[in-house]
Amino acid sequence: MDLFSLEFIIFVASCFILYYLVFLINKAFKKRIIPQWTVLLAGSLFFYGFTNWIFLAYLGGSTLLSYLFAILCQYRFRKRDNESRYVDSHAKRKKYENLLCALAIIINVGVLAALKYFNFFVDSINSLFHLSLNTYRFIVPLGISFYTFSLIAYNVDCCKRVTKAEINPAKFLLFVSYFPKVLQGPISSYDKLKEDGLFNQHNFVNNDYLKALFRISIGLVKKLVIANVVGLYVNKAYANLQTMFGFNLILISIFYAIQLYCDFSGFMDISIGVSNLFGIKLEENFDVPYISSSIQEFWRRWHITLGNWLKKYIYIPLGGNRVPIWRWIINTLIVWLVSGIWHGANWTFVVWGLFHGVLLVINGLPKQMQKTKGISKEKKKPNLVLKALFVAITFILVDIGWIFFRADNIKDAARFGYHMIKVWHTSAYSPFLDASLVNYNWLLIVSSLILVVLIAFKVFSTYKTKIIDKIKYPACINYLGKYVFTIVFFSLAIFMLFYTKSINGGGSSFIYFDF
User: Fold this and answer.
1) C-alpha distances in angstroms, 118 versus 44, 106, 340?
2) Is residue 119 part of a domain?
């Protein structure tokens, strides 16, 4: 279901009305006749199966597997008197639980690998050994990488007794399929989403709907007004790499960094806003990553829930940084190899992942060496000039990585990098002079202005307390500001959607839908 279609608007509106209608029914009868969350479950299953009902079969199969294995893991060894069939030995119990957890992970990862990576591995083998093994056209469910990671986390947490296995299969199915997060995350844990109100009763009058709509409007302008517009220039550039050089490609690389951020964080804004309409909080996934002064800081700010998942379920179990330096280096590279492969079945993602792994090793190596020698140094805060320099260097390194992330193959990525450094060479082609994009040049100016406005919003929210203290009637101004900008952003996004469609501007699919 397209998030920018009339069908999606009707779908969300219907879920919204039914959700709070159930609350009123329960209130009228003074007891919970129908749990509110059942409306979200029905809506989520309809939403996920709308494009292709086979997606539901994959999702349901993986969910049922994790559900059953978690229950077997936790309830098989509950101690009962005079029943010898229950194993009392802690060692035997843990061995059994670890086996169940491993089986659940192997099966879920196996399904993901078969659907998403089988053809990639076959093509690689064919190319390497000059074979002609057959490939197959699999139906790959949307968001399979995201919900598979959620299921792995759930099974591990249940095995470790961090999370209590959910007995109600319908509740567990809602956790996996909850429609604001199923396609692109965030990758939330079961306990976290439950704590944030997934199964609670929510009163219509207690929600801040202006805040939710304001958040949705920000996501819409990020995607439709910024990401989609700059994406047109990026696509044209990558289609004409052979005749582009120097500053044109430098600018395009920056455009793609903006496109990717606005595309992904825009979806997160929409998801968080839609979820807030139902009184349910979702985790933040971005925290202004492009102002990071190191690669480590960047990955604490970009795709936060994925970074936390990789740290908790791969990096720490491998030993983290509490191991010899050589093992720490291997651990870091393994984590980022997994991250690269998770993002897509292409060698470009493998290189991108290892590229960041190497950067993180270089960045963290001095600290690890000091730790090994027992040296402890206070970290001094750099002055503003030095910090600005670190921010610029970090952005350049991240931007280089995005070249591999965007390129169709290693050859194109290498050509992009090689042509980009040839600043003395005149480009025979420029997307900014392309006749097919002439109708978008003025939109590019609008996109730039909106980007400046969004940056100003972030600066305001960062220093909100200091600024509001100097303003009369701050609550009123804050409310009116959100109200006005929500209307303006919605109007601008709707106009941009219809305008680009009228001049054949292409689809509005999100980049991370491919992952």
Assistant:
1) 29, 15, 16
2) yes
